Amino acid sequence: MIDFPKDRIIVALDVAARKQALELVDTLEEGSFFKVGAQLFSEVGPSLLDELRKRDKRVFLDLKFHDIPNTVAGAVRAATRRGVQMLTVHAAGGEAMLRAAREAAGPEGPDVVAVTLLTSLVSEDVEQVFGRSPVSLVDEVVRLAGLAVAAQLPGVVASPTEVKSIKRSYGDVLKVVTPGIRLPGDDPADQSRYATPADAARAGANFIVVGRSITAAKDPAAAFEAVAQSFATGRNPEA
Ligand code: C5P
User: Fold this and answer.
1) Which helix (H) or strand (E) holds 18?
2) CA end-to-end distance (rounded Å), the chain
3) How far apart are CA 72 and CA 115, in angstroms?
4) CA 190 / ligand 1 centre spacing (Å)
5) 159 C-alpha vs ligand 1 centroid, how far in Å?
6) I need a surface site. Which of 8, 46, 56, 202 has the fewest CB within 10 A?
7) Which has the closest alpha carbon to 91: 17, 55, 131, 143?
8) Does the CA dihedral 54-55-57-61 come out positive or negative?
């Protein structure tokens, strides 16, 4: 179990090269959990996961698996052998796929967390993809989170605006991993639904994923500290 708030801050290594990724990791001495997503993984390959492990860092492998259960199980077993602590699958892959992922991870393996709806989707996209009348996105997120519960997954990924609704429906059965985090005064860039670390903490987020607020800061280590303070205390730092 992770008990310390700093261990619940996942820094997104959204860079395109091994050297940049490892420089960031080495700069952020206090950071213990790092997200490797599809871009960096495709550029650098799985050996990066070994290098992070050698540095005693935890890895959140965000490749959002979505395939037939047998294929996803194989991918999860491979990631488990690489020692990742957390990985993502799409809830829309269905309950059998989610169960296969959890079973492949095993009791000692990574936490398999489900992506409900991508935050880039709007109501009309959901209608087009799932063939139903426009729905409330948050209701759809809560419904899809229910699939994760049915498959006994330990958590889901959700935007700051969805955390409360998920916690209201499922309580502590589901850990919520929340991207879209900004320190007060930061550029929101392409995030339309975002919150401060303090707001995410108060909404009940168990983990926050923070990219540019730390990685694009003039002093990433100081920004990490500001995020950690805000997340731990639930109070926003001065902008
Ligand atoms: O730089 P920023 O803090 O916006 O980065 C957020 C990270 O979280 C990125 O790696 C992004 O891919 C990821 N993410 C997100 N929204 C989601 C799921 C993942 O921003 N719904």
Assistant:
1) helix 18-27
2) 33
3) 14
4) 10
5) 9
6) 56
7) 143
8) negative
For residue range 37-83, list pLDDT tens digits in order: 999 999 999 999 999 999 999 999 999 999 999 999 999 999 999 99
Rg of the chain, C-alpha, whole Å = 17
CATH code given to domain 6-233: 3.20.20.70
Q: What three-state secondary structure class fits 209?
A: strand
CA distance 72 to 214: 32
* C-alpha closest to that of 187 among 211, 153, 209, 158: 211
The number of the ligand 1 atom at minimal distance from the alpha carbon of 191 is 4
Structure tokens at 109: 């393996």
Report the share of the chain in percent with pLDDT over 90: 82
> 12 alpha carbon to ligand 1 midpoint, in Å?
7
Give buried/exposed letters for 1-28 (b at 16+ CB in 10 A, else e).
eeeebbbbbbbbbbbeeeeebbebbeeb
Q: Is 119 in the pocket of ligand 1 (CB under 6 A)?
A: yes
Residues of the chain with pLDDT under 70: 1-4, 134, 239
Sequence ranges of the domains in the chain: 6-233
pTM to 2 decimal places: 0.94
Catalytic residues: 64
Q: What Å distances lie between residue 23 and 15, 134, 209, CA to CA?
A: 11, 45, 19
User: Can you spell out the DSSP letters for 126-184?
Assistant: HHHHH-SS---HHHHHHHHHHHHHHTT-SEEE--TTTHHHHHHHHGGGSEEEE--B--T
